[in-house]
Write a structure and sequence with these properties.
This protein is of the alpha/beta class and 520 residues long. The protein is built from 19 helices and ten strands. α5 packs antiparallel against α6, α9 crosses α10 and α11 packs across α15.
Amino acid sequence: MSPVSPSAASPKVRPDSPAADEVRTPLPAKSAPAVWTSLERLALSRHAPQMMRKHLVRSLVRVTVLMAGDAAALLMLRVLLRGIRDGGWLGGATADLLTNLIPPGALPLVQLLPAVLLGLIVLDTYGASDSRRDSGRIMAGATLGLGLPFWGYLWVHFSPLALPGFVLLATIVSITLIIERHLIDSAVRRLWPIGPGAARALLIGSSGDILRALEHPALADGREFRLGGAFDPANPPLNQSKGGFRRLCKSIKQYRADTLVLTGRLDDEGFAVVMEAAGAAGCQLYALSRSFLLGGLEFQTVWRRGAALVSLNRPSLRGRQLLLKRAMDLTISSLGLIVLSPIFLGVAAGVRLSSSGPIFFRQTRVGLGGKRFKISKFRSMVDDAEAQRSDLEPQSLYTDARLFKVKDDPRVTRLGNFLRRTSLDELPQLWNVFRGDMSLVGPRPPLPCEVDLYEDHHYTRFDVKPGITGPWQVSGRNSITDFEEVIQLETSYIRGWSIWKDLGILLKTVPVVLFMRGAH
């Protein structure tokens, strides 16, 4: 693979090369476009079957590896289940419980294996996109597949424990498949950092567009794309009347490209030329989304009256996603307030006895849509801590004024230090969650003075409710000191939100809190 450089964006033809002679050869003005198009289409069409075979082989390898991994994981899980239930590996009590929840014969292997694989196919978890790594899709596909054979059994052998057993098994199968997919992804990343089946891409755009495109996460992954070369559509302009189609066809053959990637803007005629050349050569055609450059906007194709429109949206949650997230927030926050009430009383008494001042610390923060609300915490500092903040700003862990945290903060009380390190001071925020000001998972709510310093793309974090925990906390907490990295983590979380992602962050929060990672 030849590396792409700025100079490569404008391929040069040596004066003594056959290509140079062909470019200089005059043709009648009226017949040139038709002759060039037919000749180049004919030449490219000879290579199209080879390109199509490469795409087919790439897809077959991916699907085969993923299906084999899924089947192996299901077989191992079945062996483990039978060992615990029928062999008593974990004792008689566990065996009896599993027998009641998942009776023998409830999910026969002959039906289970193809049904789960079919569910994963229906949810498009074997495609070339990131859907094969999407935990929500994998869980939905596994649940759908399990439901197919289980439904018939349920009608004949109904019992009160049948549904809980199905939910338990679906959860276990889903977690197993998610772990297996991540293991496969990790193994491929380690063994083949540059994939032997990666698409050989020809980047189409100006030098500046191509340099920006090289920072795109998809193009940076050597297992997905190998950058074969670059093509500048502006010199001469990419249209058939001036030989643009012919020049593009030569570049496709020269770089042996099987994929074309549009990195910048093209007019309608230039875009038509690229589409025609890609079709003739059997190349896949991609265009980099402008959302990569424009502050987190995401594209979605919608159909109206049989015509396609591109919807431009900020990444945010909508409709049933909001209902599902709110239902989880209400359920867990109400249970937490009840179950943890003894801890609340103990901490409240400790705060009251350890230092003068109120039990709770309330502070104005900025939440969903820029709405301000009062956040509640157990007081971990002296009573006049806010008045001392300006004196401590030079000691902040962050050089960015939009983040503030001081290590060994002198305002923190002795008990407050323990509360902060164990995150017990955050517990009253369950009331904020119950009230609807916050969510269990989301971006951390900033202070109004910090928001005053934001740039336009930073406001993405206000498209969802702020959370007690979130992607920043489980990815490094105070060890991440770059505000742009924080925004990137939060934008990625919002764009790819699923209920399973929230549950995953909640589970990751447990060891972060227990081991006090990044706590100050």
